Amino acid sequence: MRPAAGAGTLPAAVAPAVTAVSDGEFELFQRLIHAEAGIWLAPVKKALLVGRLARRLRELGLASYRAYYERVREDPAEKVRMLDAICTNETHFFREPRHFEFLQGRVFPALREEAEAGRRPRRIRVWSAACSSGEEPYSLAMALLDAFPSGWELEVLATDLSTKILERARAAVWPIDKASEIPEAYLKAFMLRGVGSQEGLMKAGPEIRRLVRFDRLNLNGDAWPDARFELVFCRNVLIYFERKAKERVVERLVDRLEPGGHLFLGHAESLGGLTTRARAAMPTVYTVPPPARSA
Q1: Which of 13, 86, 135, 258 has a C-alpha 20 to 30 A away from that of 56?
Q2: What percent of the chain is helix, strand and coil (3-state, nearest 5)?
Q3: Which candidate, 90, 91, 87, places its Cα nearest to that of 33?
């Protein structure tokens, strides 16, 4: 007698259906994400929360967002995964070209002039906060090496809240389609086409990779870099913070600027009403004036 079809086999495990997120559950995540990262999810972001977390609930076999909330509270590693999922990581090479024109036309010549006059060391430190998948810090590295080809100490610190996106940034590999975002001279000088046997990819060359150092950093946390920087890029981040978090982050960003240094924000951001310590150099770019020199 032949066994019935499928007899002797165990059915595949079926993940429980995930229930919709309730208003109360959303508020739990809203408060937790704000406390951990300073990011405020308005009620209209409920669909975003579901879209970012539903897959993780299914992977863990959890049927409710309350159950996942409790898991996040008990497991620090899962909390990091949750924050990774919530973070928006949209970027591209040489984003906001006016910023790079400002660097090349005003900031870099001024730094060279001051160094030649002996008023500053031949060193430039740059911080790319919320660096996402690496396009911003590597754009900065290319611009620095082009403007200061030798005899200068150059460094780019690149930080982000998301551990997952930092792994991608450290790999420094992107689809070849992104080559169109990079000026042709930089593309030839600093990028490698093809990665191993994989066509359709490009990789940052060793010259710019040597300049960039990556680290995880929560702008809403306590472990900030001790160093000061000539340039700080914190673009399209403040828009996610509520007022008090914005004020706190801005004051700490200004603290990390060298006198005469510049802070670059996103196109929809402003320091208006957040600090009196920095003045506008151009829209979305701010500077801390150096102390007046004695006559």
Answers
A1: 135
A2: 45, 20, 35
A3: 87
Domains and CATH numbers, the chain: 23-86 (1.10.155.10), 97-287 (3.40.50.150)
- Residues 150, 122, 275, CA angle at the centre, nearest 5°? 130
Query: Which residue of the set 52, 112, 170, 209 is catalytic?
Result: 52
Q: Which of 170, 207, 178 is nearest to 93 (CA)?
A: 178
Element (H, E) at 84: helix 76-86
Active-site annotation holder among 95, 160, 235, 256: 160
For CA atoms 172, 173, 178, 184, the dihedral sign is positive
Is there a catalytic annotation at residue 52?
yes
Residue range 13-40, pLDDT digits in tens: 445 566 788 999 999 998 898 888 777 8
Which pLDDT tens digit goes with each residue over 103-151? 999 999 999 999 999 999 999 999 999 899 999 999 999 999 999 988 9
pLDDT averaged over the chain?
Answer: 87
56 is a catalytic site residue: no
Cα–Cα distance measured from residue 289 to residue 257, given in angstroms and rounded to the nearest whole number: 10
For 267, residues 6+ apart whose C-beta sits below 8 A from its C-beta are 96, 236, 284
- Token pair of 113 as six digits: 């002039």
